[in-house]
Write a structure and sequence with these properties.
Chain B: This is Nitrite/sulfite reductase. Chain B: One of its GO terms (molecular function) is heme binding. The complex is a heterodimer of chains A (268) and B (602). Chain A is built from twelve helices and ten strands. Chain A is of the alpha/beta class and 268 residues long. In chain A, helix 6 crosses helix 11. Chain B is 30% helix and 19% strand. In chain B, a hairpin with a 5-residue loop joins strand 12 and strand 13. The longest helix of chain B has 18 residues. Bound molecules: protoporphyrin IX containing FE and iron/sulfur cluster. The site of iron/sulfur cluster has 14 residues of chain B, from loops.
Chain lengths: 268, 602
């Protein structure tokens, strides 16, 4: 079985995806809302709105979804969205967690695909269901309990991927701020590898550490960060998938930047 | 076929003429931050280094910086705005801040990311080098230079050349203190008497030939103690511009106070020495500079004229309905240029803050509407689009509305200035930034922007006595401090009246202290008594000018009379009567003063 971290491939570029579609060697997943998908989508793509996945993301039920989309252990999967790759990342990460390693993100968003005037259609493909085995990868998941104890270790770096103002207002103690916008360029969902590496290195985020990412609620922004880190070669990364929302609900301690009215600097 | 990277943004009509950036400075900065974090660079040298590169410290923390991007002469191009938009989302708070000195500031930047901002800026030719620190700060130019009906010639090329001559120049890397140049178009629009070197372009007729030159003012400036500048000589010919600047800088470098941080701006030197002595020194030094230059040093003034080309319409002309706000906006935000059929339009932002998406919108508006293909920063945390054809104004207005950039009153008193205050500044005592926003909202709600009596007045607010908000030259100025009732503290402002920065430049006179939550009622009261007592052709500014100079003959004869009327409004209630009084704007915890280490002199 090909392993994603071995091949090091995180994203699939536009041209490769087009030829894989022509070769019928790929399952493309569109993570936008159903209405948008019905209008048009990348040819052969199946629709998996993130809400459908989140409504029950227990391994058994996600496995059923994968089977129904015709994905078995050998299927090559490419995921895209129109939300700068964050929703696609959350889906890809979930597949990876279940043990499907051959999953990558389309390097760009659907809007960008359209603005390049690439092919799209509104056909809904017929899918032959398949059987995927379950092979959970707990090493890429951080739970609240895990985070709580890992946080105390020196070799663990906790990264908050929400916007800077939200971070200043409240965050998990010890976290550092890396807003999700930092991860992308103007037309790619992830920065070039060397660029990303330099930026992380400046921040002291190196492969000697275990890294845990989190964001506001369901692990989308931090899912993108999970892949950004992997793309820079930092494979010892976990996603705190229930993120800050759960942390607060559990009434665990939080921290804030004191004595400054930073919100009043925002023009929003 | 490879299709990626084919997507093109709209072509720019104008491109920056000068590249101010150097990519090696980004690498160097990143390296230095690492060494500093490893303890291999002491605190003081690091701070000097950081400021020289345009990064300030941030309130109550060593982890964040503010990056001040210089926009020399205030000229900015669409691709530069788009880059700054992106950088603000990646490394700052998703908003940027337009300052009073033609800089753009990104706040709450992680210190380790500052070098990434530098790197991004090199892609569009911008720098923050020497935006802070003891060196020559951004060289300003009037936003109307080149289009002002009253100017003798356009000083923009001279401002750019001066900025280029001094940037990274070894001569100015370690001055006693910061040093500022302001070029203007005419007497009315500049700020030439409130700056180290202020310049007004002038044309002289000698033996039938015309000669370009400047009226130069030296030794002015705002601060804890403010001074008005002196005119050096009748006329300084353009060839002497560089020699005069060098002479002044050499004297300041040699004689300026390097010990007493509170008194080391050049204005103190001028004041201590006396103007005549200083003036003589400058003239002598200039003769020496001129004689000792081994080759003739001259500024590289680029005189190629800007291309003025009305953008082509691709979109449909119909369907723009003129909304109610249009006339109001046209009156309070636009000025006629000396070029027929063109106007300059001003965009006012709340205390200079602009979102990332508004920056992108602004870039597109420049491409679609400005015949010169660039924009100009103003002096009051604002920006101007110039060379907009009059026929395009209604459509521009509706586009501005869509992006939330059509706020009226840009050229009136309803657009106050507020420094950063407690939103990010280490020395701040009050949230001057938010107060400016609150005042603007209130005055616009009352439609005071449409009142001609108020249009030439101004409101400016600083969060402490340091004057970054320029309160000293405001018609109504405020600087922040703390007030106290028993053990309870509240945000309090010292109010001054009658300041101005035009040909009649004077600093406002202290009137009284006004609690933060009473500032708006006090402003409204001042307007009310002005209306009761004004002469028919008075503006608020002319009336206050008479009052503060004791030339008024109605019942309000002096600043003291104004104070008496206002005093009842400023009496603090008890905490039980009005708990809100004890909270500063934007803060839900009770007010206390708290400051960190200031870096103004560093
Ligand atoms: C004792 C310390 C300081 C003094 C005396 C001082 C003085 C001034 C003055 C006089 C101005 C007006 C500029 C002009 O129109 O000529 C100014 C501008 C400004 N200052 Fe300060 N300042 C100090 C510290 C700071 C600090 C700590 C900050 C925050 C990091 C700050 C932020 C600003 C900003 C944002 C401006 C707007 C103009 C620009 O773009 O340069 N200042 N300062
Ligand atoms: S006036 Fe005071 S509070 Fe405002 S920016 Fe300057 S130092 Fe800070």
């Amino acid at each position: 079985m090909r392993c994603l971290t071995d091949s090091g491939k995180i994203t699939t570029d536009i041209d490769s995806l087009r030829s894989e579609i022509r070769d019928k060697s790929v399952r493309v997943i569109d993570v936008r809302r159903e209405d948008d998908y019905k209008q048009d989508h990348i040819p052969t793509a199946v629709n998996l709105p993130l809400a459908n996945l989140l409504s029950d993301d227990s391994p058994e039920s996600v496995l059923k979804l994968m089977n129904s989309m015709g994905i078995d252990n050998e299927t090559s999967v490419v995921v895209y969205d129109d939300t700068f790759g964050a929703l696609a990342s959350r889906v890809a990460w979930t597949f990876e967690y279940l043990g499907h390693s051959d999953v990558t993100l389309l390097e760009t968003t659907y809007s960008n695909w359209k603005s390049l005037e690439l092919e799209s259609d509104s056909k809904i493909p017929e899918i032959q269901p398949k059987e995927h085995t379950l092979n959970l990868q707990p090493n890429i998941l951080a739970t609240a309990d895990y985070l709580q104890s890992a946080k105390e270790r020196n070799d663990v770096i906790l990264i908050d991927n929400r916007e800077r103002l939200n971070f200043l207002e409240q965050h998990i103690p010890g976290a550092i701020s890396l807003p999700y916008r930092t991860l992308a360029t103007k037309d790619k969902i992830l920065r070039p590898k060397d660029d990303m590496k330099r930026l992380l290195e400046n921040r002291g985020i190196t492969e000697n550490s275990e890294i845990i990412t989190y964001c506001g609620s369901v692990g989308t922004l931090s899912g993108l960060a999970y892949y950004a880190l992997k793309s820079a070669g930092l494979s010892n990364t976990k996603l705190y998938v229930r993120s800050f929302k759960e942390w607060k609900n559990l009434q665990k301690p939080t921290e804030k930047q004191e004595d400054a009215s930073y919100w009043d600097l925002s023009a929003e | 076929m490879t299709v990626s990277n084919l997507k093109q943004s709209r072509p720019d009509t104008a491109k920056p003429k000068i590249n101010w950036s150097r990519v090696e400075e980004a690498d160097n900065f990143a390296k230095t931050v690492k060494l500093y974090r490893q303890g291999k660079y002491d605190e003081d040298s690091f701070r000097r280094f950081r400021l020289q590169h345009g990064a300030y410290g941030t309130r109550m923390t060593g982890d964040y910086a503010m990056v001040r991007i210089k926009i020399p002469a205030g000229e900015i191009y669409p691709n530069q705005l788009e880059k700054i938009s992106q950088l603000s989302e990646q490394f700052s708070i998703g908003s940027a801040h337009f300052s009073t000195r033609e800089n753009i500031q990104l706040h709450w930047v992680v210190l380790e990311d500052v070098s990434e901002i530098f790197r991004g800026l090199t892609e569009v030719g911008l720098t923050s080098r020497e935006a802070c620190g003891n060196t020559i700060r951004n060289v300003m130019c009037s936003p109307l230079s080149g289009v002002c009906p009253d100017e003798e010639f356009d000083s923009t090329p001279y401002a750019l050349a001066t900025a280029r001559f001094f940037l990274r120049n070894p001569m100015v890397q370690n001055l006693p203190r910061k040093f500022k140049f302001n070029f203007t178009c005419c007497e009315k629009h500049g700020m030439v008497r409130m700056v180290d070197v202020g310049l007004i372009p002038q044309i002289r007729e000698v033996d039938g030939t015309t000669q370009r030159g400047f009226k130069i003012f030296l030794g002015g400036g705002l601060g804890n103690k403010s001074f008005v500048g002196y005119q050096l000589e009748e006329f300084t010919p353009e060839e002497d511009l560089v020699y005069t600047s060098m002479a002044v800088l050499r004297i300041f470098d040699r004689l300026g106070d390097r010990k007493n941080m509170a008194r080391n701006r050049m204005r103190y030197l001028v004041n201590d020495m006396g103007w005549e002595k200083f003036q003589n020194l400058v003239l002598k030094e200039r003769a020496i500079v001129r004689a000792t230059q081994s080759v003739i040093t001259q500024l590289e003034v680029i005189h190629t004229p800007n291309e003025i080309k009305r953008p082509i319409r691709i979109t449909d002309e119909s369907g723009t309905s003129i909304t109610d706000g249009y006339a109001r906006w046209l009156k309070t935000n636009t000025v006629k240029q000396k070029q027929a059929n063109y106007r300059s339009i001003f965009i006012t932002l709340e205390a200079g803050d602009i979102t990332a998406s508004q920056l992108n919108a602004l870039a597109d508006l420049i491409r679609d509407f400005s015949s010169e293909g660039k924009a100009r920063f103003g002096f009051v945390q604002n920006v101007a689009l110039r060379y907009v054809h009059e026929d395009d104004l209604p459509r521009l207005y509706s586009n501005l509305l869509e992006s939330g950039l059509a706020k009226s009153g840009a050229l009136t008193m309803t657009a106050p200035i507020g420094c950063s205050g407690t939103t990010s500044c280490n020395l701040a005592l009050t949230n001057s930034h938010r107060l400016a926003k609150e005042i603007q909202r209130k005055l616009l709600e009352l439609k005071f922007d449409e009142d001609d009596d108020l249009s030439d007045s101004s409101i400016k607010i600083s969060g402490c006595p340091n004057s970054c908000g320029q309160h000293g030259i405001a018609t109504i100025g405020f600087f922040g401090g703390g007030g106290r009732v028993g053990k309870d503290m509240y945000a309090n402002y010292q109010m001054s009246l009658g300041g101005r920065s035009d040909g009649d430049t004077m600093l406002g006179l202290t009137c009284l202290r006004v609690p933060a939550k009473r500032v708006i009622p006090v402003i409204l009261k001042i307007i009310e008594i002005f209306k009761q007592n004004k002469k028919s052709d008075d503006t608020l500014q002319s009336w206050i000018h008479r009052v503060v100079n004791n030339n008024e003959d109605t019942e309000i004869k002096s600043i003291n009379d104004i104070k008496k009327v206002l005093e009842p409004l400023t009496i603090p209630p008890t905490k039980e009567e009005d708990p809100d009084f004890y909270l500063d704007y934007g803060d839900d915890t009770s007010y206390h003063t708290k400051t960190g280490k200031g870096e103004c002199a560093a």
